[in-house]
Amino acid sequence: xxxxxxxxxxxxxxxxxxxxxxxxxxxxxxxxxxxxxxxxxxxxxxxxxxxxxxxxxxxxxxxxxxxxxxxxxxxxxxxxxxxxxxxxxxxxxxxxxxxxxxxxxxxxxxxxxxxxxxxxxxxxxxxxxxxxxxxxxxxxxxxxxxxxxxxxxxxxxxxxxxxxxxxxxxxxxxxxxxxxxxxxxxxxxxxxxxxxxxxxxxxxxxxxxxxxxxxxxxxxxxxxxxxxxxxxxxxxxxxxxxxxxxxxxxxxxxxxxxxxxxxxxxxxxxxxxxxxxxxxxxxxxxxxxxxxxxxxxxxxxxxxxxxxxxxxxxxxxxxxxxxxxxxxxxxxxxxxxxxxxxxxxxxxxxxxxxxxxxxxxxxxxxxxxxxxxxxxxxxxxxxxxxxxxxxxxxxxxxxxxxxxxxxxxxxxxxxxxxxxxxxxxxxxxxxxxxxxxxxxxxxxxxxxxxxxxxxxxxxxxxxxxxxxxxxxxxxxxxxxxxxxxxxxxxxxxxxxxxxxxxxxxxxxxxxxxxxxxxxxxxxxxxxxxxxxxxxxxxxxxxxxxxxxxxxxxxxxxxxxxx
Length: 562
Known about the structure:
Elements: E1 19-24, H1 28-38, E2 44-48, E3 61-63, H2 64-82, E4 83-85, E5 88-93, E6 98-103, E7 115-118, H3 120-132, E8 137-141, E9 143-150, E10 155-161, E11 166-176, H4 183-187, E12 192-194, E13 200-208, E14 218-222, E15 228-232, E16 237-243, H5 250-253, H6 256-263, E17 273-282, E18 286-288, E19 292-293, E20 296-298, E21 304-305, H7 313-333, H8 343-366, H9 371-385, E22 425-428, E23 431-434, H10 435-439, E24 444-447, H11 451-454, H12 457-466, E25 469-474, E26 487-491, E27 494-503, H13 508-514, E28 519-522, E29 528-532, H14 535-551
Parallel strand pairs: 1-2, 1-11, 2-8, 5-14, 11-20, 24-25, 25-27
Antiparallel strand pairs: 3-7, 4-7, 5-6, 9-10, 10-11, 12-18, 13-16, 13-17, 14-15, 15-16, 18-21, 19-20, 22-23, 22-27, 24-28, 26-27, 28-29
Helix pairs in contact: 1-2, 1-3, 1-7, 2-3, 2-7, 7-8
């Protein structure tokens, strides 16, 4: 058996279980994971304690990287219908001076608008429709998980139903996507690191009559008299949030009369708007200390909670499940050992922690109610940014460790390994579109070299076995073969098709040139596994992925909890 051949499943228990994966929770994170797994042919059971979908929005936006990840779940064509691009994000003093000014564009680096406002129930409807169109997904509503028993071959999940009965379901893996008050996390006795940064806010969801345009779309009013948030929340909707002040009671704040009084200075009155919801909430800043215990994993709010000021809560959950889906699939296929899943907490916990710390830092700037401290903050920030134009959003957070290519003897991966690869439009066989749509999703080897000369049949067979796309970047002005693939070659175990594309937006050529590379190997979650320069280096890059999947144990991780 060659190292890249599919390994026999050591348990061969797939058909002996009710599902490959049981997902606890059918919010946007659990629903997205179910779709991503079913698209790979996996049998999924989703257990949701609510009988009906939760009708009110929680998240209000997602960034361009997350839009790309959601498109990988098959809902890309419909995202424009339920979203509105945001045009900017500004922090202002009480007097209206700009402390921070970020300009958003509809042509972001990942092929989608930088920021997309949305009505969360509409997003969940898209995911539900996508799930209903796929074979292999069973959603059981009114099923509250009350027990989990992890065995050597499978996990058994006990769920209580509304009629007082219980069901026991078996799976190879269980993923807890059951929110901030996660039963799965508590059942596993997973400790939580809580930064103790928490404030209570009044949330007001508004439908304006008639709709109004806001520039910038999103604003933080850093007024010590009442820190206030104004954000878009999808077509026809906006959200205002008002921080509870010291000495103010929750009961006093959480009244419709209080909401209307606070909204009035913004021209929002019962004559101009409908108050869809008014409620208080308390944000938190915390993360679970373990994201994997045996065959049970955590994702989304079950794994991490963060203040809302960077808009990264739901985005982080989507990143979790996109990272997790392809690793679960490789493990279930026997193409990687179970220990591959140790790279999930190694990679995602570090990223989530960075997002939480950044959100807390923003919150410490915004949630200031001392007038003297606020005046000092304003003077310092305004002096530092005087004369500067609006900035652009930070790029997507790279991975700092995990399943990345390391050159022999190196302790860390070299850039661009770990980065999220940008996305532009490409042309192929008389058609054009975003790279992901034209080429397909999964592993991608993108190269300016001739891959059929650079790679032998053994390496091509390894890529075929992963379902990877081998893509040759053609010179600008070149017309790809109208018949489709630029070329094919026999590979042991399959026929390797090489797709030729033209870089219509001049994204990929400059990106390769920045790192002196001719090839990129990109993971299914769009993080770069590694880069190479020339055929010899490209062969080493492919071998590096094969070796990492064969070993499947990230550096520094040796047990089965993470």
